[in-house]
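Bench notes, afternoon.
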Amino acid sequence: MESLNKTKKEKHQRLHSFPPLRFKKFQMKLENTGVHILISANFLTKYNHSVRVQNGVLHLKIKNPKNSYDYYGGSMSYEGYGKDIDFQIRLPDKQHCHIHTVRFHHGVLKIHLSKEPKTNNTVRSAKSSFLSNRLTAN
């Protein structure tokens, strides 16, 4: 009976002994081209985060996985926390308030903020598009 209770206890401990959610690295650099922010955490994945800037504060929202099957590689299912994680990071100045790029690569979230909004040089004006459509129609 004692060995049965011991194995039950060991199995119960293994079920709840997941690694804690923690940051591995946080780095912020202020350069002439803008603010570069690097965030590395064991709970970040490619599509589980959203970023916005408001009043000199970077709002980072990270969606928790619905269960441990998504987070821990599919070994067993365990209902974890249901709430999203919200971070508010105060920026060094309010000038860099436009998101230039947000990239997730090899477990690191890279955010680049700039003073001006990002402009695409490849977007054509409506007038030239209208003329080209007119020329092809004739």
